[in-house]
Amino acid sequence: MKELIELIRSHGVSRPVFNIGYDSKNKRIIVSADSPAHPYIPKALPGNPLSALVAANYRDNFDMDTQTFHVDEEHMLEQCKTEMHERIKTFLMHNMQTADPSRSKLYRWVNYKFIRIDVTLDVSIMLYKYICSFADTQARTYDTHRDHTNNVIALLTAMMEKHEPRK
Amino acid sequence: MGVFDDKKFDGLDWISQATEPMDSRLNEILEQLPDRLHLDFNRFLKICGSIHNLTITSAIYNIVTDTVGDHLCWEQLCALCTCFAFEVEGDSIALDFEKQQITGSIYIVKTATTIDEKHLESILGVEGMNMMLSIDLSVNEAMDRCNEIMSMLGRCEDSIKTRSAYKKRVALLRRVRDLFRSNEWNIKDTVLADKVGGWIASYIIDGNLAALSNFCRLKVMTHKGQAIYSMEEV
After folding, report:
1. What is the predicted pLDDT for the residue at A94?
2. Which backbone phi and psi does B171 adopt, to 5 degrees?
3. A32 CA to chain B: closest CA distance, Å?
């Protein structure tokens, strides 16, 4: 989690300058509050999937009290958590060797209960980085990465058995 | 009789008496407002409140409050806004919080020195009618007083008979609205017209006899058949 937060905080912010337009028909001055004139363009560190994830979910908000932009850390953190969780689920959907992975116990556990355990974020980060190292952008792997695929499934299964002991 | 004299009308020159122009407080307010006002950074933010679009209405509302200190209802504000427009100079206008300035220039410009008379006629009596919205006829005495007013207004015979407070109230509001839309009483002063609704509301709600007296006086003056500019109030 520390790594994720550091990545989020490493980004800058947009300059607080807004373009003003004029709508003569409706007698209105339009301030482009959602799109500053000099927006900050986040850049990912090369070869770092977590950095790319953070950059893709970058958001800053304008604070009228301080008249400056601030990185919306909370939003970015939540979005990253959600996307990592979705990536893990998609990975299972594409790579579990069952007829309908969505009906498997493991998938259902990952879908509903995985996010509630304490160490979820750290595990998610680790799994996300691992999956990105051998899967494509659609979380699909190929036969050459079967061992890695099995590792991920085994890890998740072990976690599931730890937190959901068999009755 | 002196109490029904229209001193303002009698004081008008013969051309004004012949043409009967509308006399409005809004034109006096308009005269007090600047012809051209530059919106610098601080004034823009003060008027805008935050980073939102700025309409001419909200701009004029702020300026009127600061300059004149008057309270205007929505319809009056809109009438005033018909005499103003934004003027923008510069190819690229931007609000810069870093430098605390606006690049380019924005002005509020007065485009007319008087409000169009048709517009004034369309908002005649509106402030008074807004006061009538607080009329509550759930009390019997209020219902009786409402019937008195409606009998004086005329064309409310069916509504007087109804025992439904809701229907009576709606009918009263509608009658007064129609009266001002056609300017049946030929009132040419907007301040006087705005008082009518207030008198009606005051009498119905509180039984204010002074308000009733003023209303009756005005009604009597309509029988003269001439434009009404002023009235001696109780």
Report:
1. 87
2. -65, -40
3. 8
Interface pTM (ipTM) of the complex? 0.73
Report which secondary-structure segment, H or E, holds B25.
helix B25-32
Which of A15, A18, A20, A60 to mutate against chain B (most B CBs within 10 Å)?
A20
- Report the C-alpha gap between B39 and B47 in whole angstroms: 9
Q: Express each pLDDT in A1-52 by its tens digit.
A: 888 899 999 999 999 999 888 887 778 888 877 788 899 999 999 989 999 9
Q: Which residues of chain B have pLDDT under 50?
A: none
Per-residue pLDDT tens digits for A91-135: 999 888 888 888 999 999 999 888 777 677 888 899 999 998 888
Q: What is the pTM of this model?
A: 0.68
Token representation of residue B125: 């009596």
The answer to whether the CB atoms of B52 and A37 lie below 8 A apart is: no
Helix (H), strand (E), coil (C) string for B179-220: HHHCCCCCECEHHHHHHHHHHHHHHHHHCCHHHHHHHHHHHH
